[in-house]
Amino acid sequence: MNKIRLAKYIADAGVCSRRQASRFIDQQRVRVNGALANHIDHVDSNDDIEVNGQQVVPSNEKHYYAIFKPIGVDCKLIPSDPNSLIHLLPEAMRLFPIGRLDKDSHGLLLLTNDGALCHQLNHPDFEKEKEYIVTTSKPITDEFCQQMMAGVSVKGEITRRCLVEQLNETQFRIVLTQGLNRQIRRMTKYCGNYVTDLKRVRIAKLTLAELNLEPGKYCSISRSQIIS
């Protein structure tokens, strides 16, 4: 096995996403052969790698789940938090979420131990779509939709062009190919409105409707249901 970047190795082992692995490295919570890890470290299965004090054991079998995340559930997998998503997941299975939803949002969430798929769905260069239905506190205008589509400033970054379609006076559909933190809420606020409900209904080609899930319930899916 050729040595690969540490964050990719951790993600491929099913511990967490590459982004979270990078955060763990920054926080000095990763060790390679007993020494604190660096982002430039390249490793393979012959190296002893620990994340948060737990040895990383690569998982060859990949698992894929879809869950209808309810409002009030936090996507951080913290066992001590009664509102954590971890309490809704299959026991004794190491999974991590793809494309988190904030605590006040609901809808489709994917969970896997497939780091490569997570990277493909989360990194904007792959342009994998995520679709949302959004309800606002004030009426939506054509100007609002055009401004949202063209891109606005979110934490110093201009959002990518996206699809926005008005559904009724206070509801619109938006399709994104990037996932900045609380992006839709911040975009909506920038354009002079406020989100009162945010529901994700599609990730890539998988829709929430086809799964027929109740809030808080999950089901096993295949990789091919998500991407071709």
UniProtKB/TrEMBL annotation:
<dbReference type="InterPro" id="IPR050343">
    <property type="entry name" value="RsuA_PseudoU_synthase"/>
</dbReference>
<dbReference type="GO" id="GO:0160138">
    <property type="term" value="F:23S rRNA pseudouridine(2604) synthase activity"/>
</dbReference>
<dbReference type="GO" id="GO:0000455">
    <property type="term" value="P:enzyme-directed rRNA pseudouridine synthesis"/>
</dbReference>
<protein>
    <recommendedName>
        <fullName>Pseudouridine synthase</fullName>
        <ecNumber>5.4.99.-</ecNumber>
    </recommendedName>
</protein>
<dbReference type="InterPro" id="IPR020094">
    <property type="entry name" value="TruA/RsuA/RluB/E/F_N"/>
</dbReference>
<dbReference type="Pfam" id="PF01479">
    <property type="entry name" value="S4"/>
</dbReference>
<keyword id="KW-0413">Isomerase</keyword>
<feature type="domain" description="RNA-binding S4">
    <location>
        <begin position="4"/>
        <end position="62"/>
    </location>
</feature>
<dbReference type="GO" id="GO:0003723">
    <property type="term" value="F:RNA binding"/>
</dbReference>
<dbReference type="InterPro" id="IPR002942">
    <property type="entry name" value="S4_RNA-bd"/>
</dbReference>
<dbReference type="InterPro" id="IPR042092">
    <property type="entry name" value="PsdUridine_s_RsuA/RluB/E/F_cat"/>
</dbReference>
<dbReference type="InterPro" id="IPR020103">
    <property type="entry name" value="PsdUridine_synth_cat_dom_sf"/>
</dbReference>
<comment type="similarity">
    <text>Belongs to the pseudouridine synthase RsuA family.</text>
</comment>
<dbReference type="InterPro" id="IPR018496">
    <property type="entry name" value="PsdUridine_synth_RsuA/RluB_CS"/>
</dbReference>
<dbReference type="InterPro" id="IPR000748">
    <property type="entry name" value="PsdUridine_synth_RsuA/RluB/E/F"/>
</dbReference>
<dbReference type="InterPro" id="IPR036986">
    <property type="entry name" value="S4_RNA-bd_sf"/>
</dbReference>
<keyword id="KW-0694">RNA-binding</keyword>
<dbReference type="InterPro" id="IPR006145">
    <property type="entry name" value="PsdUridine_synth_RsuA/RluA"/>
</dbReference>
<dbReference type="Pfam" id="PF00849">
    <property type="entry name" value="PseudoU_synth_2"/>
</dbReference>
